[in-house]
Amino acid sequence: MRHYEVVFMVHPDQSDQVPGMIERYHAMIERGNGVVHRTEDWGRRQLAFPIAKIHKAHYILMNIEVDQGVYDELMSAFRFNDAVIRSMVIRRNEPQVGNSKIYEEELRDQEKDKERERRREEEYAARAAQNASSEEESGESSDNTEAAAESAADTEEVEEIWMNIILLEPVNNLGELGDEVVVKPGFARNFLIPQGRAVQANKTNRAEFEARRAELESAANEKLGAAQTRGESLKDVVLTMVVKTGEEGRLYGSVGTQDIADALTSDGHEVARAEVRMPEGVIRMTGEYDIALQLHSEVTVDIKVNVAEQSVLGGLMLNNEAWFDLVEIVHAHDFYRTQHQIIFEAMMALANADEPMDAVTVSERLRSQALLEKAGDVTYLAELAEATPGASNVLAYGKIVRERSIMRQLIGAANKIADAAFSPDGRDSNALVEIAEQSVFEIAENRSTEGGPEKVAPLLSRAVEKVEFLYNNKGGTTGVATGFADLDKKTSGLQSSDLVIIAARPSMGKTAFAVNMVEHAVMSGEAVLVFSMEMPSEQIVMRMLSSLGRIDQTRLRDGSLQDDDWARFTGAVSQLRDKKLYVDDTPALTPGDVRSRARRVAREAGGLGLIAVDYLQLMRTADKSESRAGEISEISRSLKALAKEMRCPVIALSQLNRALEARPDKRPMMSDLRESGAIEQDADVILFIYRDEVYNEDTEDKGVAEIIIGKQRNGPIGKVRLSWIGNLTKFENLGQCNACNEWNTLSRVNISPIKESRVGFAGAAAQIQKLNEVKAQEAERLTTTFGELDRVLGGGLVPGSVVLIGGDPGAGKSTLLLQVCTKMAQSRGVLYVTGEESLQQLAMRAKRLELPMDGLDVASETRAEVIASHITQRKPDVVVLDSVQVLQMDALDATPGSVTQVRETAAFFTRLAKQTDTVIILVGHITKEGGLAGPKVLEHMIDCFMMLDSPAGSRYRTLRGHKNRFGAINELGVFAMTDLGMKEVANPSAIFLQRGEVDSPGSVATVTWEGTRPLLVEIQALVDEVAGGYAKRVAVGLDQQRLAMHLAVMHRHCGITLADQDVFANVVGGVRITETGADLALLLAVLSSFRDRVLPRDLIVFGELGLTGELRPVANGQERLREAAKHGFKRAIVPFANRPKENLPNMAVHGVQSLSSALEVLTNL
User: Fold this and answer.
1) pLDDT band at 159 (very low <50, low <70, confident <90, very high)
2) Other Cβ atoms closer than 10 A to 586
3) Are strands 1148-1152 and 1104-1105 parallel, antiparallel or unpaired?
4) Edge-to-edge, what's the strand order for the sheet holding 292-294?
5) 3-class SS at 903?
6) What are the residues facing 1036 on neighbouring strands?
7) Per the record, which residues fall in region Disordered (predicted)?
8) Same domain for 347 and 391?
9) Which one, out of 89, 547, 1039, 1124, has a CA that is 20 to 30 A from the CA of 837?
10) Which of 984, 1018, 1048 is the last residue of a domain?
11) Bond before 883 cis per omega within 30 degrees
């Protein structure tokens, strides 16, 4: 509930409706549990409002306490009532503050105000009497008195300045107050009435009113004049709101901090809104109020100090030689007082004219410009020199002045930002942020920069150090390598602080060339920042993935990736994941934006190795120059300055003009640069790209690009030839034959060097033995502590074996293995190696799953040789490698995830597992077709291959074995994904056989045999008329071709045709049935849906169907029936050969030999 005072105005001609309105509004408020504290009918009158219009209307005031809903309803009632001219809320209070207590508090406040005014007047009288007594005793002249006052002011705080602000509310006729009343903002005597606001007055109190006004104005002007004479800043200005009326009045509107600030500013006293303090809040009632104008708070007193400025000026008069050092850090606008700015500018003119600076010369200079009076007289200039503490400390004083100046500028910028936020004037938040950035950036730009002339000694020292480094580097790359051998040979890499321009006509490959440079720098460990104003950041990254993974850009763009592409793609993603690459695709950046963002990234990354801007002509300046050439000039200069500030090369792409298209030889030159003058001047290196095949289709140089070095400030110019691979948007090194000097005649052949074993696991040479001489001892299996996983493994992990687990992203492969490792690590040595996440991420996941973390060894590594070294040194029992697609061998020149890397690393770790008797578990990704990403030979090399399936929308996971040298295949393990990881499902049949309460046609239960155990599942079918076109046959969890074959068998041998019906079949729970024992159940579910007949709920069905319509027995029939009986099934239809030899208790088993006989049995059930 909140408290409101509402005034609504009724048209004078409809005053008779007021009582009825009040009654309806009271009822509305009471109906909403609100309270009406007071209602006043003011009758017809004429009042002024802030909108500067005079309304003659019937006024009603209501003091209410309501919630937001009732308040909105009341306002709507006002708006839709034609008799109500206008309504307005004149007072809002916080909740809990309401009822009659509000008016009691107001009366107490008024008494406090009167008491405060009485004490204040007594203080004035006492002070005036004291001053009069002091003057009589001293008998000194008024001049001496003023001098003493000025001297005291130097050591004492400035007195409070009192100003009179009078608010008037016009009575029936404004003219009754006289023409001398000015209705406009102002200061002191001019600030009588803020526009549109007033205090009620009448003829009876006019004389008292005028007398009080004159008294306060006189006191205010006297103290204000004294302060201004001394040249001191105001400390506290208390604005007293005065009214002498017959009764308390109300301001229809309010007076706030902005009104006070505007009034003072209009009279020449610049005051920010933030400097106005109104302890009693916004003024809405007539009365007397204390309003402090805090110009000299503890901060601003320190900022607006004059001593340092006087010491600088006085010190320069005593020591002219200090000028040349001081002028580097202090400028005229850094002085706070205007007279000091004038004096400093006069000194600057004298110094530039090589004339001495002292009180006499400076005063003469000021007199010649008619500025001596504004700056103070000769006496003040002499006092500056005499009062200086020490001329030798001028630089220290200058730094103080500079620091204070920057602080004031920051305060001014903050006020400007606050004003813009309070009054956006239609500007959105982005525009306001740009104003804020520009305000602070201007301050940073105007700061005195470090640097200046240096003696030759330190320069020689740095030169010697660089030469020694180059000598030790043996002529290698000294800057950031581009990855192009011939280009690096000519440039020694991209040098620190260089601005490198890459220019070409459209479609030549500017962005691709720059991205290739960025890619090489990132892979070399450099932190790189890319500003892409032409392409989105995602496209930049896609290009890098295409280049690193050598994946066709078209296939990557439309998603038609092949199996090998997925392996290379995941490898490229793994390579880029932890690199320090930052991409900003914000369009139309300004040089200030680029600089500020580069600084931020440099702080985060610990420095930048390379910055790339794509491209220069898409940048803009904050303030547009007269011409585009001027803008480009400013942008190029700023990029060069950025390179020097960041101490790294900056690459900027640039367009070329169309002039070269008209030349026979279309190779670009520097004059082809757009707005080339500034770019040629600022650039350290200019590279042009030319591909002849763009202009000449029959050229012999297809796939060849020329990189023309048009300018190199510290090296030779010339040409470099590179290979262009269009489908990868990639430039590569192009070989030149040393025998014939022809280009593009060499083909690359990767020869893996023969290296000594760095891990020492090769072992002795293999010995030939007789088979019967080999000891066939059953190795002790290692339990994973997960029974379902041990089941699929055939009883546990066999030492020396290699296990591969594949699955969809998010299926839970890494989660399951992390749970296994943390539990096994409590009793065995286990090493978990991840190449896809950091150790911190791994620890966070283990903590979230509440796993024990004390015994498990972990590492984040992708290099196979390093991992093998850890294995041979620590000798763990089990090693998990997540994943095989990110592993790489240094000896292979191929990206991780490629066919070569996956094949060789898998073979490498398979040999290591056999020779060290270590269990190695590999994690593998799968393609969108469901196959393992990588070569097929990978499945042949390993000992056990299993897939973790995750049905869409289900929390259950099935782990199925596809290959197992040490156990049964097609074994099935069932897990449930929970908040704490994977949990085993002890009774899968109960999960997959959760049938609804209401039986429906098309549902039947069957028993499948998964590995070594039976599993009950539900098969559902739906048969519906064909809507149009061909009949559909869809099977989920079943073989679709087998479904179509059985429908043909049913037509041939049972006479039931579904040619005009769509048939859909599904295994509930996401399980996939691969055995043939579900044939009979599938057809019976189809017939149940087709005939719209519900099959018995306690019926279990299994059996294989032949093409002649016969039912063939299935393996483990007796175990299947016992599993069904255990779950409450009473009847069964099975192949005749699968009948139990002995009757099963509580189950009637019907053995049938054909599909037609099964249908007969089903009819009689």
Assistant:
1) very low
2) 12
3) unpaired
4) 161-166, 236-242, 292-294, 276-277
5) helix
6) 1066
7) 101-154
8) yes
9) 547
10) 984
11) yes
